[in-house]
């Protein structure tokens, strides 16, 4: 992933919880293994995971400050 794409992943998908932006950030057959051990495939599967995490943890924010510090 490129730096801008990584930032958009966290800022748009996680922090803003903007699932409509997924096609512009992720490939349609995106495969993801979350820190909770769940494996998801595709935009729909990833959207379900994002919803589950946000529902469980509320206003979850990414590691944006760490990304900025490390200038990833």
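^ Assign residues to that structure.
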């Amino acid at each position: 992933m490129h730096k801008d794409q990584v930032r958009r992943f966290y800022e748009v998908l996680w922090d803003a919880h903007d699932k409509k932006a997924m096609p512009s950030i992720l490939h349609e057959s995106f495969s993801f293994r979350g820190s909770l051990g769940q494996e998801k495939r595709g935009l729909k599967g990833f959207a379900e995971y994002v919803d589950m995490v946000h529902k469980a943890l509320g206003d979850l924010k990414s590691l944006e400050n760490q990304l900025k510090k490390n200038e990833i």
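The helical segments are 3-15, 22-25, 42-57, 64-70.
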